[in-house]
Write a structure and sequence with these properties.
By secondary structure, the protein is mainly alpha-helical. The protein contains five helices and four strands, in the order E-H-H-E-H-E-H-E-H. It has a two-stranded antiparallel ribbon with strand order 1-2. Strands 3-4 form a two-stranded parallel ribbon. Strand 3, helix 4 and strand 4 form a beta-alpha-beta unit. The radius of gyration is 19 Å and the shape is globular. The relative contact order is 0.12. The mean pLDDT is about 85.
Length: about 130
C-alpha cells in the first residue's frame, strides 16, 4: 500500500522547487484544507498533485499581483527574477517570456552581493 501523504521532499522534487518552498506550499494547502473541514498533518499533504499544482499557480499569481501593486507594469518594464522562486514562476506563472528573465540559481543573490562588496572594497582601497 502506498503512503497517502507526501513529504516536503517529494513535493519539492515533483514541482522542481526548493524544500523551503515545498514547506510553504504544504502549509498553505493544509490551511486551505483545514478551513474546508479536512484533517491535515503538519509537514505532509495528501497526494493530490493537481491540488498542489493549483496552489503553486495561486501562489505565483499572488507574487505577480503584489509586484503590480508596487507599480510593476508588465507592458512597460522588464522583470528580472533571481533565486529559487524563479522555478515556481517558470513552471506555474503566466508571463511574457520576452519581458521576464528568470535566473533560478539559488546563489545568484549572494553572488551579486559578493560582486558589489568586491567593487566597494576596490574603491575603498583606491581612495
Amino acid at each position: 500500500m502506498t503512503n497517502q501523504f507526501m513529504r516536503a521532499e517529494e513535493v519539492a522534487r515533483e514541482l522542481e522547487v526548493s524544500k523551503t518552498y515545498a514547506y510553504k506550499l504544504i502549509q498553505q494547502l493544509n490551511a486551505e484544507l483545514w478551513e474546508k473541514g479536512y484533517i491535515t498533518i503538519a509537514g505532509r499533504v495528501k497526494r493530490y498533485l493537481e491540488v498542489i499544482q493549483e496552489t503553486a499557480r495561486n501562489y505565483v499569481a499572488g507574487i505577480m499581483r503584489r509586484l503590480r501593486e508596487h507599480e510593476y507594469n508588465p507592458e512597460l518594464m522588464k522583470l528580472y527574477i533571481v533565486g529559487g522562486g524563479g522555478c515556481l514562476i517558470r513552471h506555474f506563472g503566466e508571463y511574457d517570456a520576452n519581458r521576464v528573465t528568470i535566473n533560478d540559481d539559488i546563489c545568484a543573490t549572494a553572488k551579486g552581493y559578493e560582486y558589489l562588496a568586491g567593487i566597494r572594497l576596490k574603491k575603498a582601497g583606491a581612495a
